[in-house]
C-alpha cells in the first residue's frame, strides 16, 4: 500500500480574514468547492500542492471549540524576523519571542495564531526533525 499526504482541513468563520492571514504566510488561493451548507477554500504554498483546506459552515457565528487535541501546524520560513516584522504591521504578534527549540541554538521557532485561534509554528530555516532516544517517560 502507498499513501500520499493531501491536506489538512480546519474550520474557519471568516474566510476573508483567514485567507488574508494565510496569504501573509505565503499560501496561495487554489480553488473552492461548494456544498449546500458549507464550502471549502483550498490553499497551497508556491510549487506545492493544495495542502490546506479551510471549511466555512454557512451561518456559523460562534467560535469553534478547538479542543485539547489540536496543537499546531508548522511552516519553515526563510526569514523569520522579516516575517514577524511584516505580521506585526497587521497586529499579529507571536505568543513569545523566537527561541531555540530544545536548546538547539542554530534554529529558532515561534508560534502565531490565525483568526480562529489555530496555532502556527514558524521555523526559521529548515532543520531535520530530531531523532533522539525515547523520552525518559517512555522507558
Written overview of the protein:
The protein is α/β, with parallel strands linked by helices. The protein has 2 domains: 1-59, 2,3-Dihydroxybiphenyl 1,2-Dioxygenase, domain 1; 71-129, 2,3-Dihydroxybiphenyl 1,2-Dioxygenase, domain 1, CATH 3.10.180.10. Helices cover 14% and strands 29% of the residues. It is built from 2 helices and 7 strands; from the N terminus they run E-H-E-E-E-E-H-E-E. The chain has helices at residues 15-24, 80-88; strands at residues 8-11, 28-34, 38-44, 52-57, 73-77, 109-113, 119-124. The strands form 2 sheets. A 4-stranded mixed β-sheet has the order 1-4-3-2. The longest helix has 10 residues, at 15-24. The mean pLDDT is 90.
Short description:
14% of the residues lie in helices and 29% in strands.
Amino acid at each position: 500500500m502507498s499513501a500520499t499526504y493531501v491536506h489538512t482541513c480546519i474550520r474557519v468563520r471568516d474566510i476573508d480574514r483567514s485567507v488574508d492571514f494565510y496569504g501573509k504566510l505565503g499560501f496561495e488561493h487554489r480553488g473552492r468547492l461548494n456544498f449546500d451548507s458549507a464550502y471549502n477554500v483550498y490553499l497551497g504554498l508556491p510549487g506545492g500542492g493544495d495542502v490546506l483546506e479551510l471549511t466555512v459552515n454557512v451561518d456559523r457565528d460562534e467560535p469553534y471549540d478547538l479542543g485539547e487535541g489540536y496543537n499546531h501546524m508548522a511552516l519553515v520560513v526563510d526569514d523569520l524576523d522579516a516575517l514577524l516584522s511584516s505580521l506585526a504591521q497587521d497586529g499579529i504578534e507571536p505568543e513569545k519571542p523566537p527561541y531555540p527549540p530544545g536548546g538547539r541554538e542554530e534554529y529558532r521557532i515561534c508560534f502565531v495564531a490565525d483568526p480562529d485561534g489555530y496555532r502556527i509554528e514558524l521555523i526559521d530555516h529548515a532543520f531535520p526533525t530530531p531523532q533522539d532516544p525515547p523520552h525518559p517517560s517512555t522507558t
